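Today's session is about reading a structure prediction critically. Students often jump straight to the picture, but the first step is always the sequence itself: look for stretches that repeat, for charged clusters, for runs of hydrophobic residues. Only then move on to the predicted structure, which in these notes is written as discrete structure tokens rather than atom positions. Here is the chain we will use throughout the hour.
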Amino acid sequence: MAKAPKPGQRRRPLFKEGRKSGLVVLFVPSVERDGKMPIDQDRWVDAALEMFGRTFGGATAYRKAKGI
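Below is the predicted structure for this chain, in token form.
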């Protein structure tokens, strides 16, 4: 695992030579594997946005989707 930068230090950019684009899709389920115990989705979404924002310089979350 990469070490966190010391206060006042900046991380090296992940991408070199300008801005690149990529797509990461992260699925955060609404319940545990047992299908009953709910998961705090907002907490996981906020943590993922924070991490992706720091790592890649930005992140976007979309509203809950429906599917079958």
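Discussion point for the tutorial: The chain is about 25% helix and 0% strand.
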